[in-house]
Amino acid sequence: MKDIFLNVQEAKDNLQVSKISQAYHANKKRRDDPLFAVGDWVLLNTKNRVRIFKNNEGKRAAKWFPVFDGPYKVTHCNPSSSTVTLDLPFSNIFPTFHCDRVKKFIPNDDSLYPHRAQVVPEPMEVDGEMEYFVDKIIDHRKSRRGTKYLVKWTGFGEDHNEWMDAKDLAENEAVDIYLRDHPDAA
């Protein structure tokens, strides 16, 4: 009985030594997490958000999807869990991501690359309110409260597409065009 107990203890010790050795050799190749601070601008990996970038026919090839989108502003950092929380203004996904899903955004240097600057359009004043223009309606879906439309804004990339209620898009020419082409959406 004493021999069995000693053999079990020796096996546990050998497993512990093996775990320590494996961790040591695995960590030699790992690099530290990048350090982000509140207010930094980052790009977000699109690997797990492919559905957002598909068009309504589903004919767009995945190889043409952007690998990163953004930039987004960091609103909270948690170095103990290697996560950052981002300000995602036009999205309804959970805004906290692991550090391996984001990378630091390096803005364009206009002196080196003068034609790469992306101009973000300013809102226009319509009836006393500041509004952006709808480029087109991409998709629709039914919900308990009615129909929602996936809106592509004029001058913005696909990462800024937004689901909006039909009542918020009343008297919009883009909705009329979409309904003409997709009669099942009405």
UniProtKB/TrEMBL annotation:
Biological process terms in GO annotation: chromatin remodeling
Domain Chromo: from-to ranges: 132-186
Protein known as: Chromo domain-containing protein
Organism, scientific name: Panaeolus cyanescens
